[in-house]
Amino acid sequence: MKKKFKQIRKQTLDLIRPLEIEDMVIQTDAFVSPIKWHLAHTTWFFENFVIIPNQKNYKVFDEKFSYIFNSYYYSLGSFNPSNKRGFLNRPTLREVLSYRKYVEDHVNNLIDKKKDSEFEFVIELGLNHEQQHQELILMDVLNIFFNNPLKPAYQKKKNTPKNARRKNEWIMFDESIHQYGAKVNAFCFDNEIPIGETLIKPFKVTRDFVNNKDWKEFIDDNGYNRTELWLSDGWDYIKKNSINKPMYWLDLKHHFTLNGITDIEDYQPVSHISFYEADAYCRYKNMRLPSEFEIELVLEKKKIKGNFLENKVFEPVVPENNSNNFYGDLWMWTSSNYRAFEGYKPFSGFFSEYNGKFMCNQFVLKGGSCITPRSHLRPSYRNFYYPDNRWQFSGIRLASETE
What we know:
Helices cover 31% and strands 12% of the residues.
C-alpha cells in the first residue's frame, strides 16, 4: 500500500512539471478548477479522512484549509463555492506543496502502523479519488490553455501515432442475460454495486469511434441547424451558446489539444462532444447510443489495453493494427441515465456524499480515455457527466439492434 500511495501521489506531481506557477492559479469557467486547488484538495481528502480519524493529537496543517479545499462534503461543514476557487491567490503554490509533503509524511507513518481493512479501504478510496483528479487536472489544463489567446501547448507534440485509416466495422452480440456491476474482490466505488442482472437483446456496436471526417460531414450537412435531430434541451443549449462544432475545434482544419494547435486528422476519433451532440449524431445516422450495460458487456470481453494517461499521448488514436480496443482514448457516451442500481447502498459515514447525491440529470460514460490512469479502469466503472458537458475527453460509438 505504501508503494502504491507513493506512486500515485508522485504521478500527480509529474503532471504539473510542465506548468508554471501562473498556469496553476487560473479558473476559466465554473466547471474548471485551478490546478493548485486540485493539488490541495486531494491532500485535504487524506488529511480529513485518513489522518484525523486515525492519529491522536494530530496538528492540522492549517485550519482554514478545511473551508477552501473541501469540495462538496456538507457533513464536514461549509466550503468555498466552486466558482470562486480561482480567487485563491493565497495560499501560495509553495504552501500547497508543503501541505502535500506534511500530509504524506503522516499518511506514510500510519500505513506502517495500521493494517485493518477499514483503514486500507479509506487509503484505497483516497488513491482512486486522486486518480480522478489527475484526469481532471489535464482536462482543466486544456481548458485554461485554450482560453489563453496565445494557445500555449502543455507538451510538445511527440509520440503521437498517425491515426489508422480503416473501415469502421460492426461487432455483433447475441441476446444474453448480462450480470452487471463489480464482480472482482477488489476496490470499487459504491455506484458499481450491487451486482444485478438484465436482459440484453441482440445488438451491434461499431469497432471504432465516430471520427473527425464523419463529424465534418455532419457539419457540412447542416447537422447543427436541423431541429429534427436534436432533443429540445439540446437544441436550446447549442443555440443559446452558439455551438456549431466540437469544443476545441478552431475551424474545420485545426483544433486545440494538450499538444498545442494541431491539424485535424480525418481518421482521429472526434472528441469533446456533449451528450446532446452525440445523441443528435446518432439520429442523423439512424442509429443510437449503446446502453451502459451493452458497453459493460463489451468491456468484459476485452483486455484493458489502449491509450491511457501513462502513454503521454494525450489525444485519442486509432491503432494501426487490426485491434479493437474499447478502453482508453475517449470515454464513450451511453444512453443510460446515471442512477442507482437496484439495492444500492452508499458508502457509510462522510463517504455517503461521494457518489449517491449526484444521481440526477447525468448520463453514464464508460471505458476511460487517453488521460485516464490505466489502473483506474475496470468494466464496471461508471463515469458520469451532465448532457451539456464537453470539456471531458468524450466520444461516440454507434449502436443498433440487429435484425
